[in-house]
Each structure stands twice: as structure tokens, then as C-alpha cells.
Amino acid sequence: MRSELIKKFTEIYGGDGSDVRLFSSPGRVNLIGEHTDYNGGFVFPAALLQASTIAVRKTDSGKIRIAATDLPNRVELDITKLADYKDLDWGNYQAGVAYVLQQEGYEIVSCDILYHDTVPFGAGLSSSAAIEVVMATTLATFSNEAKGISKAVDMIEMAKLSQKAENVYCGVNCGIMDQFASAMGRQNQAIFLDCKDLSFKYVPLNLTGYKIVIGNTKKKRSLADSKYNERRAQCEEALEQLKIAYPEAECLRDITVEQFEDSKMLIQDEICRMRAEHVVYECDRVLNSVKALNDGDLMAFGRMMTASHISLRDLYEVTGLNLDVMVEESLKIDGCIGSRMTGAGFGGCTVSIVEESAVDEFISTVGKNYTERTGIVPEFYISEAGNGGREITAE
Ligand code: GLA
After folding, report:
1. What gap in Å lies between CA 176 and CA 30, rounded to an integer?
2. Most ligand 1 atoms within 8 A of CB, residue of 176, 178, 349 to mutate
3. pTM for the whole thing?
């Protein structure tokens, strides 16, 4: 992969490739804890092996030039005018990261970049976070080198700045989960993250005899951004009303299940009450899931995943026909012990825990039934937890 990418790089930008470096940052799958991150809650994602990898060379052109292996697009960003690229169809995420880093005092070094992405786009596996975090890691590394700073780049900082770029530059009001998982992922581990204070623990994915299977519904996530922002607003409204009983609550995560049940009628709007119910119970499910995994109780973990999907379907209303059909068909397979949508919803992917010996049957039968019911041919990926953003120095 390394030599192939460097070869493509030199075909576009010239040179012999000896001064080209590689950086990479993965997509993520969230195992449980959906729509909780922007409510200060718990999430439990793992980084994927699929990633956004770049070949990059420093230049003195005053520009950041960007190309991609799978798209004809090319962009050229003037590093003195980084505020000007918000409306780019492609390249605005990268420009946003460069802009935010510059605002934060990083020295932006001119460079030529070739992106190679293996995270499917728009599938709810955080292809955009992967693009952002690899950009941030590269630019911060170059900035440190330019300033003679020898310490390693702070990857939590990269996650925060990437999220900020997406919020302020690209206008997507996302939480921190995707960028955090992309920056901090670790092989064979999931990340139990508290989004209120960003404390986290790695939890080994000891799935002996089982596999994580991702099902891509291939349904485009239409209207996802506006619905996403609407859900956020509904959660904020619910919190305001719950504060009458719990004035010290800073976010919905601060409300326990018992407190919620005692006081939910303070939330006047029924829809807002449903949204808050999902968040409060989902946070509880994450805690129980992590405990179940630590106790080796995979069945309990699977049951929690399925309960999460039902809550996202009935209370948070972000699933839609395609995700529901995929989960329904998945759960019909013997050996599938839990299944749910992952990511923002409204299309995208499901994640299921499937007994290793049933994986082939799972993929063919779920695939066939899903196509019969929706007319769409899905894709499946057997997933392993991979490492987070970094420079790749060896083959
Ligand atoms: C998207 C956002 C995340 C998170 C999930 C839902 O992936 O980028 O911050 O809110 O949706 O859990």
C-alpha cells in the first residue's frame, strides 16, 4: 500500500517520492451509546481498519494542494486565506481543519497531499472524522517540526480541533465521539468515553467465537444534518424543563433513570420527552454494556444493543425503513445475538454481533432478504478494532 500510494503521489505532484510521508486515521463503528455524546453522555465506539490515509510532502508554495485517489477533484488552499473555503463541495473539511489549527496558533506549513480513503462515504462510519483527524495530525506534526517542538502531537487535542472545524467551518453540529474514536482508537479495544469530561478507558473486545459485522444499508443519509440539529434542540428543551426539578443538571446525562421517571412529566412536549427518555436510558445501557463485556457476558451486551436500536427507532426516531429492515433480518439469524444502527441514523450502517460460524450464513441470508424487501443490494464488512490517527513510518 505504501509504495503504491507514493507512486500515485509522484504521478500527480512529481519528484522521486523519497520525501513523501504517510499519515492515517480511521473511521469508527459505535457499538452502543447513540445520540448521547452531545448530551454529555457515554459512548462506546471502536476505530476501524478502514481509514483515511494520506501521502504528503512539505513544499514552500504557500499552498496546501489536495488530491484524492478515488475522485477527480483537486483543491488548492492559500494558507493566508484559509477562511475562504467554506463553500467548497470537496476539500472544505480539510480547509476547516487547517483554518482552526491556524486560529489556535499552529504554524501551517505548505504541502501537497494525496488522500486515499477506504471508509465508505456517507455510511455512518465517520469518513469525515477520518479525513479531519488525519489532516489535523499531519498539520500539527509539521507545525511542531517547524517550531522545533519535539513532543508528540496531543491526539485528544486533534479530536477536539477536528470537531471544532466540523462545527464552526462546515456547519455540522456534531458531538465529539467520531473524532475522538478516530484519533484515539486502539487495536482490539473499544473506547468507553465519558463525553462530559472526556475521561475514557480502553475495554478489550474479547469476543471469542463472535465477530462484529457491519451492514451497510446503502441508503443515503438524506436530511441527516437538519434532523440531527433538530434532535439536539429537542434534547436541550427537555433539559431546560427537567432543570426545574434538578437545577444542578448540566446535561441530560446528569439525570438518572430514577430521576427521569420521577420528573419526566415536567417535559411538556411529548416528542421532547421521548427524546430525553432515549438519552437517559441509552447512557444507562452503555454503562451496563461495558460491565457485561468486562464480565464476559456477551449475551447481555447483545441484548443491550438490540434495546438501543428499538429506542432509537421508537423514541428518538432516527432509524427509518432500511435500518429497521436490516436489523430485523439480522436478528432472525441464529447466532446473531444483538443488532442495531450505528452513527447518526437516517440510513447508513448497522452493527451486529454474530457467532463466527454463522457469519457466512448471516451475510448471504440478511443480504438476500434485505434486497428483497428494499430493492437495494447491501454490503457487509467484518470489522476489527484498529489503531487511531498516526504517522505510518514502516511498511
Ligand atoms: C454522528 C455525530 C456524532 C454522534 C452520532 C450519534 O456520528 O457525528 O457526534 O452524535 O452521530 O451518536
Report:
1. 12
2. 178
3. 0.97
